[in-house]
Amino acid sequence: MFTGLVEEKAVLAARRSKGPGAVLAVRTAMGPLVLGESIAVEGVCLTVARVTTDGFEADVSSETLERTTLGELVLGAPLNLERSLAFGDRLGGHLVSGHVDGTCMVVARVPVGDAISMKFRIEGRLSRFVAEKGSVAINGVSLTVNVVGPETFEIAIIPHTRDVTSLGSLVPGSKANFEVDLLARYVARLFDARTTSSSPSEASSNDAAWLERLKLAGIA
Fold it and tell me: What 3-state class would DSSP assign to 208?
């Protein structure tokens, strides 16, 4: 689990094929790294498979390559890194799982004083999870949604976020990894379970079951 607060902007040093997947080499000063630990790379939860002299390597499945931008990034591209959350840490962003739902695309970038306003287009299936003043994770960065359209949303990037993450390099046409808010995911599933129930008693049972799951997840 992560918070969406980037710890370091690293560099994609290499990418080589490995069967249907790939191996990513990340150049970073973050450390000391532990073999097997989880690190969010551009919002994607990856496992440190090998610790190298200048960073680490991680194995990436074909599913991850297809669903995220990790298979398309050019060598030398900046990468947002965040180590997994430890008990007792401050939760400055929101709960981010590192399980990317899909990609979004920048359709507009407008300076607003020292900040940048960006508009993103997302797949229609994901738009239901985005709400004004709700949270989203873009390339692993926790952001607040300012404006919502039918298949778009807008966020503001402050100077600090622009400088210390990869978001400052995004321009119209750029793709980014997108993860919906964890709470929105469960609420939508709860609503779906209720609306597809065949009877009021079944709907009530489904509500109780999903409420119990939300409680177990610590979000209800």
Answer: helix
- CATH 2.40.30.20, applies to 8-83: yes
Q: For the domain 102-181, what is the CATH code?
A: 2.40.30.20
DSSP letter for 210, please.
Answer: H
Query: Residues of the chain whose pLDDT is less than 50?
Result: none
- Rounded CA gap, 168 and 106, in Å? 12
The C-alpha atoms of residue 149 and residue 153 are separated, in whole angstroms, by 6
Closest CA to 19 of 51, 75, 74, 59: 59
**Coil, helix or strand at residue 167:** helix
CA distances from 182 to 8, 20, 109, 142 (A): 24, 29, 27, 12
Closest C-alpha among 145, 131, 144 to residue 188? 131
> What are 88-141's pLDDT values in tens digits?
777 788 889 999 999 999 999 999 999 999 999 998 889 989 999 999 999 999
